[in-house]
Amino acid sequence: MSRMSSRLSAFPALLPAFLLTLLAGAVAGCSTTKPTVYQGEEFSETSTFSHDFATSSSATCEAARRTLLSQGYIIKQAKADLVDGHKHFQPESDVHVEIEFHVVCAPNDKDGKSTTLFVSATQDRYALKKTNNSASVGLSVLGSVSLPIGSTSDSLVKVASETIPAGQFYDRFFGLIEHYLGLDGGLPVVDFDDKPALPTKPVSKTEEE
């Protein structure tokens, strides 16, 4: 009896230590939870989504438009300081991907000789989903009754969407813009800043006299 009573008397003394161990484990489990997405937005100075060009904003955006067109992108809208385009891909038979570009050209000085181009590309992923359809059968007594015949239809459902963070992806985009602007050592395809010359009226003989 003395040994059993000593063991029972020692159990309450061990109980607080046991509870502290459980509490520490629970705290450790909570500390391993994944941080929220916005905590990764440091708003630090980065060149991943921007690039400076020694050209006007209109010329820079026009070069961006030609860059997207040369790669098969469909231009949704194009302005002097804004270009939007998108392109479809099908990496697998039941998977579709759409990349959408959003480009903004902001002048850096009053003379308009320097521009910062900001670009963001979004990748949307769609999967092919099958849905069961039911057919309506008309009966004279019961009226219209919906019966599952077993027919199915396919539809695309968006399953993921993210902004492309890859630096090399944007570096290739900036490099092709430099080519169209003639900043890579070659000549520009078109002098975007030049306006077409107005036709001159021929001078009549009466005016010469």
SSE ordering: HEHEEEEEHH
Shape descriptor: globular
Rg, nearest Å: 33 Å
Major sheet size, sense and barrel closure: 6 strands, antiparallel
Derived from helix and strand composition plus strand pairing, the structural class reads alpha+beta
**Extended strand count:** 6
Distance between the termini: 141 Å
Kindly report the average pLDDT value: 77
The fraction of residues assigned to DSSP E strands is 35-45%
Range of helix content: 25-40%
| Total of helices | 4
Unreliable stretches (pLDDT < 50, length at least 5) are 194-201
Kindly describe this structure:
The chain has 209 residues and is α+β, with helices and mostly antiparallel strands. It is 30% helix and 38% strand. The chain contains four helices and six strands, in the order αβαβββββαα. It has helices at 2-31, 57-70, 167-181, 205-208; strands at 50-53, 74-78, 82-92, 95-107, 115-139, 143-163. Strands 1, 2, 3, 4, 5 and 6 form a six-stranded antiparallel β-sheet that branches. Helix 2 (57-70) packs across helix 3 (167-181). The protein is globular. Mean pLDDT is 77; it is low at 194-201.
What's the arrangement of secondary structure elements?
Blueprint: H1 2-31, E1 50-53, H2 57-70, E2 74-78, E3 82-92, E4 95-107, E5 115-139, E6 143-163, H3 167-181, H4 205-208
Antiparallel strand pairs: 1-5, 2-3, 3-4, 4-5, 5-6
Helix pairs in contact: 2-3
